[in-house]
Structure formats: structure tokens, C-alpha cells
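User: My instructor asked us to take a sequence, write out its structure as C-alpha cells, and then describe one feature of it. I'm not sure where to start. Here is the sequence I was given:
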Amino acid sequence: MADLRDFTGKNRKFTGTIGERISTGTTGERDVATFGAGTLRFNSTVNLLEYYTGTLWKSIDAPPSITAFNINALGNVTSAVLPATSSILSIEIIGSLFSSGCTVQFLGNGGGDVNPLTTTFGSASSVTVTVNSNSFSNTYEPYDIKLTNPSGLSAQLDNCINFDSVPVFATAAGTLGTIFDAGRSAFSLSPATATDADGNTITYTLTAGSLPTGLSLNASTGAISGTASAVGSNTTSTFTITASTTVLGQTVTNSRQFSITVNAPVTETFTTAGSFTFNVPSGISSVRVLAVAGGGGGGGNIAGGGGAGGMVEHATFPVTPGGTVVGSVGSGGTAGQARNSGGVNSRGQNTTFGAITAIGGGGGGGGGSSGEGPADVQGGAPGGSGGGQNGYPDSNGSPGSATQGPSGGGTGFGFAGGSGKTTHGSGGGGGAGGVGQPSPGGSTSGVGGVGRQNDINGTNHYWAGGGGGANYSSNTSAAGGLGGGGGGGANPEGTAGAGGGSALNAGASGTQLPTSSSSASGGAGGLNTGGGGGGGSHDQNAGGAGGRGIVIVKY
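Assistant: Let's start with the prediction itself. The C-alpha cells for your sequence are:
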């Protein structure tokens, strides 16, 4: 018997705005025997239309979409890094057209898929899952989030989750370098740096041991800086630096042990007259230098003291690690022998160290010859420090000026000699720390100029003192300046000047004539101090030789 439906409803036109009613039933109420393939119904169990293909039921659904996700309620994001620790994370997946019963999966790149511990359907726009962050791996990042509705339709947010990487140190364990004494305030060491594959901010902390005193760690860069304190012996400090990143409140760390050695000062001293070569140790890029030129010799016959050798100090003289620096040590000027001997004839020799030049001290002015005329007088000569003016009557001589200035980037020191009196009072030679004293009048001579203090060799010595002027008759000759200046000589009735002390080697005191037929001389400048020689007394007595110079290098 034919079914009425075979004859009615053909090409029927549906009208109205309400819609058409279709059969509704649960999944258990499906009936394929009655109608078979092509049957259309609404499944109230899954709340979706479905149709029968002849072999299976297929749901009719719109695909869901994922727009963002929110980890531990910290805010919606489209990408994130999960902490590399064992922690349970709550991840809310946000989107549209989610269905109850949907499933979520985190798809790894090339494998390593992660299934949630729990899945909770909240609404068509929110599904929350929990996962253990340790289920993820750097091997399979970045991960995709895939949500699949019961209809089989799915949504996917690609390449949105990475697994936090442990910071990796770029600096090898062990020594970060050696700080030499000369570079304690300007050292350059490898920073204890690390990298993070996820671009997370790295924080550096000192977690064991200690840095050398005076140094500190930059928490943001891993750089170590400051001014290391001086040490009495080579000292190695061992310490551990930890690099850490924080993700979602979880901190990941990596630690490495390093060391820094601070070296005690090393001093090399060059004292022999003539050229020398300084071999720069490996790792040294600057040195501290003291260069003192040879002192000027004292003049003869009521003569002025010799000027001290010029002095140059350089705290950070640049050198090439493993290279060489050529230098020379200047000899002291010769002693003035005759009545008019001294001045330019008794100038000390220059001392050099690379680009540094310390200028030799000027000789002390000598007295007149038997003619006793102005043309026979040698005035105090210019030099690193100037020689003192003689004290002979009718003298046209003058005190020597100081010519030492900055050299090779270092600071130069030198002062002029003192003036003499035509009443037999001679002037002292200039020193590195002060002018030579003028004759105070009468037959009294001037004291040598004071030297300059410098502690490069471990003791705060005076260096480069001026020579003392010589007296006439019964007066006391002047002392040499502190820093190796020689004292003036004396007649039988007078008293010789003392040598200048407080130096590496004190200047010699002048000698006194025991009888009128004997000879006496000014005291020599201290050896390797650059001290000026003392002036010679009346009548034809010689001055003292200038002290040899010196170069001291400290690193």
C-alpha cells in the first residue's frame, strides 16, 4: 500500500518566520529501521541536528573558534611560556561555539602531545583545563591548543605555548680574569652572562662565596665592576653566581662557579744609567710610572746648588700586553770644578720611558775667575728644575728656570732655582716640590728646593730635591732639599750644609776645608733620586755632582 507521503508535499514551499519543526529525540531514541539513510532529526542529548548516512549518524554543527587563553587567571593572552617546574596550572580557553563534552589537547611540534588532567565545560565561550607544566618539553615546543566538539568539529590556536628554558651560561666556569694592581680601578673582565631561549629577563645573584673587596655584581647584566681593594699578596676569590628567570610566579635557576684573582703590586725599578727595556707582562694594559731625570751638578766658588732632575708621574701609562717599552736612566750632572764652572756645563741627563721624558736638572751657577768680572760668571742653568744663582760679587748670572712640563700623558714637576746675592750669598737649586730658596742676604746661602713625595715603591719618599747653595767665609752653607739634594761645601771657618734626606738615598753633606790650603766640595745628590748637587765654597772649591735618575714601574 502506498504511503500518502509519496503523493503529497512534493516541492513544498516553506513559508513564515517561525521555522519548521523536526523530529526530536535522544541518542538512544534513534530509529534507522523506519526511514534509513537520509533521516534528519534533532539529537537532544548533544543538542545538535544530525542525519543518517546509511551507516552512521553525523551531527550538523558550526566549528568552534579559540581567540585567547588565560593561565592562572593572570589575563588573556595569545601566547605564553610555561614554567619549567612541576606545577599544576589552570588554563581557561576562551572562544566561541564550544559544546559540552568537548575535549582539549595540547599538540606538540613533532610529537609530545599533552592531555589535560581535568576538563571543565563552562560555557560556549569558556572551557577550563588543568595541566602539569612538567608534561611539556622544550623538544616539542611550540605547542598548539586544540579544542574538539562532540560533533568532531574543532578549533586550533597554533604555536601559542612554549616551555620555559633554563638560563644557559655563555661564560665558561672558572676564572673571569686577573686584576693587576695598576688596573684595580679600570679593569676589564668577562661578565658572568647567560642567555634564555624564551627571551625572559634574567636576574643574576651571588649565592655562594664572595667577590673581591670593592667589587659588586650587576643584577641585570652579570657584569662585575668597582675598584678592587689592594692586597698584600695575590688573592683569589671564588664565588657562585645564579642566573634565574621567573615565569607565572615560578622561578627557574642555573648556577655556575667563577673566580677572580687580584694581584699584589709588582714593582720594577731601573737604576743603572743608560738604556733599558721593560717587558710588559701578558694581561697588563696600563702601568703606573715614576720617572726622575739626573740632577744638575753644583757650581764652583760660592756657587748655587744644582737643580733637581725633572719628575714625571703617570698613574695609568698605556702599554701593550706582552709588548715592550724602551727607556733610559739619566746620569747626574758633573760637579763644577773651577771658579766659573757650573751652569749649563753641569746639567743632568734626561730620563725616558716610552713617550715620557723627564728633563735633566740645571747646573748650579759658578763664581768668577781670577779676573772676577761679570763675564766670567756661569749663572744657574735651566732644566727640569733650575740651578741656583751663584753669589759672587759683580755677578750677572741668574737663577735657572724650570722647563719640566707634562710628558707622555703624565704630569711633570720642577721648580726654578733661587737667586743669589752679590754679597757672596748663593741660591739653592730648585726641587720637584718647590723653588730653590734665595740667599737671605749677606754671605748666607739658600736651601735647596724640597722634592716631591711619591709612594710608588711602597714608601712615601721625597724625590728630586734641589742642591744647597755654598757659603763664604765663616757662614754655614745651606742644606740640600728633602729628596736627595746635596749640601753646600764650607770654608775652614764655616759649616758645611747637610744633605737632603727622606729619600731613597739621602744627598751627601758638603765637606769643610780643614785648612786654607785644602780643598772641599759640595755634597753630591742622592743616588737614583735625581737630587741636585751642593754648591762649592770659596775660593776654588768644587760643587757636588748631581744624583742619577730613576724609573719605577708598578702594575
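For the description part of your assignment, you could build on this observation: DSSP finds one helix and 32 strands in the chain. Try explaining in your own words what that tells you about the chain.
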